[in-house]
């Protein structure tokens, strides 16, 4: 499961949201199909999703983190560099010069774990420098 980006979710909502594009992106397949068959629940669901997208992205990202760390706890195969890429924001997900979303509610810049505000953007490479 990949980390979702609030900006991407809003772009999909705007362009393909009436057909559930943003819901498919966030892993909500059932409601995505419902949106596709009913034109965004007759536009009512599509409009209310404008306010719900940050929460949907946070929920998706929380689940992605839980799955990632559960894999680590279960002794699954992973590369240490991959773990630090996730913690350090990865390409396009935070940190200086990486298209940071810091300050955007629900964006990767605040990790989505605390439910709002404050940024957790690490300086570029800071996580990998610790080891």
Characterization of this structure:
The chain crosses the membrane at residues 7-26, 32-51. It comes from Cafeteria roenbergensis. Its main location: membrane. The protein contains 6 helices and no strands. The chain is 55% helix and 0% strand. The longest helix has 30 residues, at 44-73. The chain is mostly helical. It has a domain at 7-75. The chain has helices at 6-16, 21-25, 29-42, 44-73, 80-87, 126-129.
Summarize this structure as a short list of keywords or feature phrases.
single chain; 131 residues; mainly alpha; 55% helix; transmembrane; TM2D1-3-like; transmembrane helix; TM2 domain-containing protein; TM2
The backbone outline, from C-alpha atoms, is: elongated
SSE order in H/E notation? HHHHHH
Distance between the termini: 26 Å
Structural class: mainly alpha
The Rg value, from CA coordinates, equals 16 Å
Poorly predicted runs are 87-120
Helix content: 40-55%
Q: Biggest β-sheet: count, sense, barrel?
A: none
Give the number of helices: 6
Number of E-state strands: 0
Average per-residue pLDDT, rounded, comes to: 74
Strand content: under 5%
GO cellular component, one term: membrane
Organism: Cafeteria roenbergensis (Marine flagellate)
Main location: membrane
Family: Belongs to the TM2 family.
Structure at a glance:
With 131 residues, the chain is an all-alpha fold. 55% of the residues lie in helices and 0% in strands.
Q: How would the blueprint of this fold be written?
A:
Blueprint: H1 6-16, H2 21-25, H3 29-42, H4 44-73, H5 80-87, H6 126-129
Helix pairs in contact: 1-4, 3-4
